[in-house]
Design goal:
Helix content: 25-40%
Structural class: alpha/beta
Number of helices: 22
Strand content: 15-25%
Strand order of the largest sheet: 19-20-18-21-22-17-23-24
Distance between the termini: 29 Å
Number of strands: 24
């Protein structure tokens, strides 16, 4: 292959992209390929990305065309880009929108084709055919209105993603305006809200701490209609309520909470995913909330966590405007395609480092601390059943002293100790003499502890995964992760996100991941770090012995 430039990227015919991390143009190349390539592996020196159809279609829906994608590949590639790959990019992106869902003045919802052969192909598909009605002409076929969402799901799976131009109902009008007396929407928040509104439905991807709630509020103001907001938990819902009261013209009486504790349905109703998916006598009775009012807008906070029953209900809500908010579109269950089909494509995506450069989120140092298990712990791990191995190595008692050393190094800094296993967290709570927040902690007690942490009365909190999402703890500047949900990339991103609110002193955040070396713990840690590596965060690796000594010794840099 002929060498053509000294670019940082090697583009291969199997649609993998190899990025040389230490190359001076690597950050620019990473930013250029991020809209259409997904990071697969991120070891020290070369990161591997893959160009997938879904990534290309998301890029297309977000306004990127094939010419821009080809230009990015050619500009940064060290060698000539394989011609078949470039052709495939053009062809794949060209598939998006060849089929369109359009509202016909006489026939209602229709599927219109810009390519007659494609329409004939999908009409003959056994899964598509039952969703279609009569054919109006060579390019148009009637669609059963109730099948709008499911049709998009199936068309995506057969490789012909439809562009949904069928419009939306306005819903029940309700005046909502932003109260920008002592604050203003940031430029990227305004762009995100505008991009969403122009598309009518879709997902906005912003870093944790970048003010996704304000994008939601701006969308609500544009809609001027009753709004249903779905959130991860009650504490997050109450944060939404406080923000909306503070930043909009909405009053407390206009905002209802629909949770395990209360069932209020008001012009703006905030419900938890948990209560929506709770079964009663085998039925998801609370899903009726979707039909309880003529909602003009539905907001899905942390959309990457959307549970399957809500997906199913969302398939029936395609005539309503839908906004998904998230820090990452990564789903560990592989259902990114359902988010694309049912919530909508990615409308706006801001790289974390861009927002950091603007000063809206704090810079962060990521450190992986590698712990050597004791001989006894290693023996226990060696003979453990496969399903017990991860818990054993990630909850090793050896980690406790390392956590203490980290807290000692950052004395006085507001610190979160985060883990996945309750017995480990309770042990840390005892050893560190600080409170533990877990799933069984009552909401009222959680809020009291979070408030004490925010005020500085509490320096350290031990938290389970209940604090992964949507908890606003702007003062936190250090996090110590002792265990996680296996290799969850989105969990890693969310945990770092707890630290990214800008600090009053402009200081840096510190994110530690304490990992047992030569075990599954280390393997899963490497997988968890992939998303943050894609966003430009480098993990520095240090040995626990260096931390436990009088000073931290030399460390090895790694991405």
């Amino acid at each position: 292959m002929e060498r053509v430039t000294d670019g940082p990227l090697i583009v291969q015919s199997d649609k993998t992209l190899l990025l040389e991390v230490d190359h001076p143009d690597a950050p620019a190349a990473r930013a250029a390929i991020a809209p259409f390539a997904e990071l697969e592996r991120a070891p020290e020196h070369v990161h591997t990305y893959r160009v997938t159809p879904l990534a290309l279609w998301n890029a297309r829906a977000a306004g990127h065309d094939a010419e821009q994608v080809v230009d990015a590949l050619v500009t940064y590639s060290r060698y000539a880009v394989p011609q078949p790959l470039l052709m495939d990019v053009v062809d794949t992106m060209g598939r998006f929108g060849r089929l369109q869902l359009v509202k016909h003045p006489a026939h209602g919802l229709t599927l219109v084709s810009l390519d007659r052969a494609v329409l004939l192909e999908v009409m003959r598909n056994k899964k598509v055919a039952p969703m279609l009605g009569a054919q109006i002409d060579d390019d148009t076929v009637i669609v059963h209105p109730s099948e709008r969402g499911r049709l998009k799901q199936v068309l995506l799976k057969v490789g012909w993603p439809a562009e949904d131009l069928a419009g939306y109902v306005d819903g029940e009008a309700h005046p909502i305006a932003l109260a920008q007396d002592d604050w203003h929407l940031r430029d990227y928040q305004e762009m995100a809200a505008d991009s969403f509104w122009a598309g009518g439905s879709g997902v906005v991807v912003l870093p944790c701490g970048a003010g996704k709630t304000m994008v939601g509020a701006a969308a609500m103001a544009k809609a001027g209609a009753t709004t249903l907001i779905l959130v991860t938990n009650t504490v997050a819902g109450r944060q939404w309520k406080r923000e909306l009261i503070a930043r909009t013209t909405l009053t407390e009486e206009e905002i209802g909470e629909y949770s395990g504790e209360r069932k209020e349905i008001r012009p703006v109703t905030i419900a938890t995913y948990q209560v929506m998916t709770r079964k009663s006598k085998g039925e998801y009775r609370n899903l009726d909330l979707f039909d309880s009012r003529d909602w003009g807008l539905i907001i899905y906070d942390e959309v990457h966590l959307l549970p399957a029953p809500v997906f199913r209900m969302t398939a029936d809500l395609q005539s309503r405007r839908r906004l998904g908010l998230t820090a990452t579109l990564v789903r560990e269950d592989g259902r990114e395609g359902d988010v694309f089909s049912l919530i909508g494509p990615k409308r706006y995506d801001a790289p974390w480092k861009d927002i950091e450069a603007q000063g809206w989120i704090a810079p962060a140092e990521c450190i992986e601390v590698r712990v050597t298990l004791t001989d006894e712990e290693r023996l226990q791990y060696a003979v453990a059943e496969p399903e017990e191995k991860y818990k054993l190595c990630s909850t090793a008692h050896t980690k406790v002293n390392v956590v203490k050393a980290i807290l000692n190094k950052h004395q006085g800094a507001p610190t979160l100790v985060i883990g996945a296993y309750i017995d480990q967290l309770e042990e840390l709570g005892r050893e560190l003499d600080c409170p533990v927040i877990q799933g069984s902690t009552k909401n009222k007690e959680r809020e009291i502890l979070f408030d004490r942490f925010r005020s500085g009365e509490l320096q350290t909190l031990v938290v389970s995964k209940v604090a992964n999402f949507s908890i606003d703890l702007p003062e936190a500047s250090v996090a110590v992760q002792v265990s996680g949900t296996f290799g969850s990339r989105q969990e890693e991103a969310q945990r770092l996100g707890r630290l990214l609110r800008p600090k009053h002193d402009g200081g840096q955040a510190h994110f530690y991941s304490v990992v047992s070396r030569d075990t599954l713990d280390a393997d899963y840690a490497a997988h968890r770090q992939r998303f943050l590596a894609e966003q430009g965060y480098a993990y520095r690796i240090t040995d626990a012995d260096d931390l436990l000594g009088p000073t931290i010794g030399d460390t090895t840099s790694a991405d």
